[in-house]
Batch of 2 targets.
Target 1
Amino acid sequence: MPQGNAAAAAALLDHGGDAGDAVMARWLQSAGLQHLASPLASTAIDHRLLPNLLMQGYGAQSTEEKQRLLKLMRNLNFNGESGSEPYTPTTQSLGVAGSDGFYSPEFRGEFGAGLLDLHAMDDTELLSEHVVSEPFEPSPFMPGDTRVFEDDFDPINSKLESGEADTDASISLPMNSTRENNVAKIKVVVRKRPLNKKELAKKEDDVVTVTGNAYLTVHEPKLKVDLTAYVEKHEFCFDAVLDEHVTNDEVYRSTVEPIIPTIFERTKATCFAYGQTGSGKTYTMQPLPLRAAEDLVRQLHQPVYRDQRFKLWLSYFEIYGGKLYDLLSDRKKLCMREDGRQQVCIVGLQEFEVCDVLIVKEFIEKGSAARSTGSTGANEESSRSHAILQLAVKKHSEVKASKRNNDGNEARSGKVVGKISFIDLAGSERGADTTDNDRQTRIEGAEINKSLLALKECIRALDNDQIHIPFRGSKLTEVLRDSFVGNSKTVMISCISPGAGSCEHTLNTLRYADRVKSLSKSGNPRKDQVPNAVPQTNNKEVSSTSSFPASAGAEDFNDQRQEKTMDMGRKFVEKENSLHSSAAAAVDKQPLSYSSNYLSNGGEEKGFPSASVDRERYEVKNSHGDSTSQKMNSYSQSDTDEKVQKVSPPRRKGYKDEKSERPANWMKKDANGSDLFTTSSKQQSTGNYGTVSKDEKSERPANWMKRDANGSDLVTTSSKQSTGSYSTLSKDEKSERPANWIKRDANGSDTFTTSSKQQSTGNYNNITTGSRLNETESSPDGNVSAVLEEEEALIAAHRKEIEDTMEIVREEMKLLAEVDQPGSLIDNYVTKLSFVLSRKAASLVGLQARLARFQHRLKEQEILSRKRVPRQ
Ligand SMILES: Nc1ncnc2c1ncn2[C@@H]1O[C@H](COP(=O)(O)OP(=O)(O)OP(=O)(O)O)[C@@H](O)[C@H]1O
């Protein structure tokens, strides 16, 4: 660099003047590129050209301008590399950010949130700042040798190894296995709130009666066909039932308090509230962390923990529309990453040390105020998100003051001993909140729905000690991943509204709770309780109608039930291994919203063998007040028939609808484990996989795809499709097939794309291979989640396209600079320019295609959701 420029650069460092886009504009103008204006130009220059530009008198003429230009370029980190590496910011770039103010407000102000801020705006910034993964306790399911980590984690071992003799390790962390065993792995508690003002004003009846501390009855008002009113009784039994007089303190004592000591014993506990909007979830959940923090802090003050530098940390975030936001940091968007050990880190999440309980209150208030809420008919301040407050006990090793990470987030330096997550779920019926709503609200609802389903699945898998925990089912379960493995404890508080107007939702909530409990291996609700807590009359009725011997007491019943449940656990695993069963499971995983689109009018739940795996329940129905039946759904219809004399109304009334919605062309696995779609002829033409236009039909037969042993896609057809014959598509053929043909996405999944004609019918557009086939994709939620995924992909692609463009522009600038050099070869210039322009065009066309696909998908989703949810 010439002396003058070097001097200018030096002067600039001191000067600290603002970089003006006027300078940039002039500079671009002189290069004939004024239309690029400041943002693009500012990032598209090779720094090696800088001396040339300055020397040749491009742009900045005065010393001051030159200084500004140089400063600008320094700030933009003109190293010719950063622009092409969108997701791996270097420490260098961070350094720049820190020292040169890359993200300084003055630059943001001048260049807006344009290209300059690419990295600042997206997840990368978060990742780069906080990607240090927490040293969580390794999962027992984690592949590879985790011994070192465990040893590292284990305070006892680490103490011994490090030769620290100041504390007796065996005393320091008493592993009280008896105590741990005494705390149930899953506890399901129901809380009934009092009638609220609105319900009282409407003179609504209280239809929920609580008997003892574990039983409740819902008296459902019904009408006979001849319009005579009658009451149907539904009885439930849980680990605890708390009536409307129970205080929040008592709720704490019966739910969270017993878990607190286990937090110091490496337990990851989860306490969540489930229930319809306005049922009291927030009211119930909000005080719990406060009380828990009190107890945790008290424990931490014990010398044994204090000496080991145990500390309590709090974080509070929400999951809204499948995205994470920090409620204690201005709703900053967070991203979730898995580290090499498959441990989940929420990148950028702020954690605050809790030394004093009062601060917890403040945090709760602050976080709750930041939470996404909206108004519903049932609740003026209805939660539209899942809020997760975590209290983590961490052990901090002694760090020399000089070495201490001085970033104000010491939390990261500690190792998690145990933690408890409090989750205030969004209203359970929000999935049904789709009528007359905009796309955002519908997606919101479907997201909620999906996560509630996934949560239930995880809890079930967890309690069945399944190896495969389906935590990838939703963001919620992914976030809670480490709470689903190892030592975990779950408390579910089902909140119910007592009013007659909420009866259906109340029943749905109770059924969800019942299913969570009853499907678990330890789901033996009242084995340890006095059986005659059940009203005598019902006991009798149960005995007389159930398949169990009349003499069998509740204990026997429970024994059998438990046996059955364990068997169920086994079967569930088997089921997981079979694709067919997996498909059946998808049926089982119907939305919890019980919205009208999932409900038929009281149709009986017919046997669907694999799906009925989890139908066991203990719901006593006393229809018309004169007969009671008990349903013990089993694995097969025959089993059910044998044991059920009178079938109570379906838990999910939607079965009929679901069945009719589900195409017969369900996926099966053939003998070779290939994915095989079967279809009936009728559904070929009307099938949910999309109707086939005439042209397409003539071009290809009834098109079901099968993967043969070589991994090729086979097209199979039923006999009625006379034109159909097996044909194997070669790779080339595949590229020729019509638009609405199966496509393999980046993950190797097969995706059906449909033509516009097919949009309105394509319920099952995405078909993913693998054992979890269509669990979400075949459901309405699956469709929405596909939209969300595509949305993310589109945004990522857009970002990538901009970065590519920047790279290309950089090359163009270089070309221009070169061609202006004396003696430059024009041929060279032309060839290179042609190449660069082709790349530019390809990049743009790719993005346009993706955009069009997404628009198409949005329309499709819109049509589908309108079709599914009849206006009320
Ligand atoms: N057990 C209770 N005792 C007295 N009032 C209650 C109780 N439970 C809830 N409430 C009141 O009912 C109203 C709704 O409760 P809350 O906001 O907790 O419902 P929610 O289930 O969280 O609703 P959403 O899902 O819409 O957020 C609040 O005004 C709350 O104070």
Target 2
Amino acid sequence: MACRVQYSIHNSLRLFSSYPSSLNFLSTARPHKIRFRNSKYFSISRGALYCTCNTAEPFVLTTPLYYVNAPPHMGSAYTTIAADAIARFQRLLGKKVVFITGTDEHGEKIANAAAGNGLSPIKHCDSVSQAYGALWRELDISYDKFIRTTNPNHEAIVKEFYSRVLANGDIYRADYEGLYCVNCEEYKDEKELLENKCCPVHLKPCLHRKEDNYFFALSKYQKQLEEILEENPDFVQPSYRLHEVQGWVKNGLRDFSISRASVDWGIPVPSDAKQTIYVWFDALLGYISALSEEEEQPSLQNAISSGWPASLHLIGKDILRFHAVYWPAMLMSAGVSLPRKVFGHGFLTKDGLKMGKSLGNTLEPTDLVHRFGPDAVRYFFLKEVEFGNDGDYSEERFINIVNANLANTIGNLLNRTLGLSRKNCQSTIAVDSAIAAEGNALKDAVEKLVEKARQHYENLELSSACAAVLEIGSAGNVYIDEKAPWSLFKQGESGFTTASKDLIIVLEAMRIVAIALSPITPSLSLKIYTQLGYSEDQFSSITWSETRWGGLKQGHVTAPPKPVFSRIDLETEPTNTTDDTKKTSKKKDKQKTQKVVEA
Ligand SMILES: Nc1ncnc2c1ncn2[C@@H]1O[C@H](COP(=O)(O)OP(=O)(O)OP(=O)(O)O)[C@@H](O)[C@H]1O
Ligand SMILES: [Zn+2]
């Protein structure tokens, strides 16, 4: 549905309607070039502007801004893949999506990493930040904004935010003494540490630090935070993470230091250049500064009016406290509205430990993508790790799952159905799929399953969404085996009508699978769609509403069948893993189901 916006012309075009402020008027460009923030171009007709977006409020979704102490790994890719699936699903619903990712580039850990590589901090940041961008391209990540915290617009916005919080009376100066984990970039409570004062995430001893710092009065917001969490149970998800956050808040909030005297690599504190702003107080603002347009004056208000508040912050559970406690309090202090939801997913683990850059026990995503392709990687992690819980990786299980689900259940079904249609029906749909399936049980099952998938996507239950779509493929396989159209075709005229309808029904189910799985496996879905005889352009403009039964119409011609997903062959697949790691993963795979450990 197009929105109608009235305008008139003086020296410039003006906006008169009560249009949402997030679509502020941008420029005095000529009519056909008019553009509003968060919107595609507008068209003009009979004195009215027609917006090409469907809904006024954009869906703003963020991944963490990854710390550039080391290149990305499968854990960083996991959050980003999940965010991409959610962004693609929201676009299918017709929402205007702003998908934000980026890199967090300041702080002690970065300065140390740069020194270790013999590089200046910014050269180091440039190179690691590019590695993130390159990996996102390999994984088909459709982000809209990539923010680097070394971007000058970001720096200006952080300073403005700091000044607002200061003006609100929430920043004071004091001495601080405590135990600091450089890898977490966080002071720790002694009671949360392991033996020898080790950080439970990074397994390294925390350092004793004493500094004269600026503090943020977090404790002032305790009551408000309690109320927000109580009144908005969806604010933190899954629900067990909400309970965790409520526990922290109830235990009492301590003010935290938001500057560092000992760190040079950071944004200087306004009015005290001897200190830099604490990396978290800086990085969280990236979610807002990412919204500011490069060419305009960087200001909090400009950025905020471009789509804030975020609809969803997708993060790992390691940084839940920063997002669900510190961040809302900071925003309240600065008078900025809160994000709508924070979802903290679990960890990909290796031998039960969080896979991470600091521990160095990471899985290399580029290697996986080069060997198996982006769809296999995206599908495996989203389908096999229940979103929210931890999950362990094993190569053998990876291969088994993608072969069984993508190559067999989906790819093979499409291939043999198209083959039969080519051989017996000249690849032509003889009757509308809606007519072919009147009163058909597979059609009913597909309609229920695709609706189930939609609900799962909405609830961020990505694994269940995959399972529901896969069930359509399984039902299609059962259907074709039971109906055996190949033998009906042999019966001549009498069998032909039934058999050709059966093929249409299965192909229509596959069309729906292609759309419903496209948030997870965009390249595979495109292949299925083109095999079904549609163009790339048709694919790129599909919407979720097209999962309604009845898309394949009489006279439509499908393409010659070609395998859409090649089986991975364990024997011939060139692998970098050593025999030892293979043996270990085989041993682990004796468990039929994936090991899911909730830490
Ligand atoms: N093992 C993991 N499983 C799932 N997500 C992860 C994992 N490791 C990192 N992430 C994602 O990256 C975010 C943390 O980003 P960061 O750049 O600090 O990476 P890191 O590898 O955890 O670093 P470090 O090991 O130094 O703590 C997490 O909140 C999560 O979104
Ligand atoms: Zn730590």
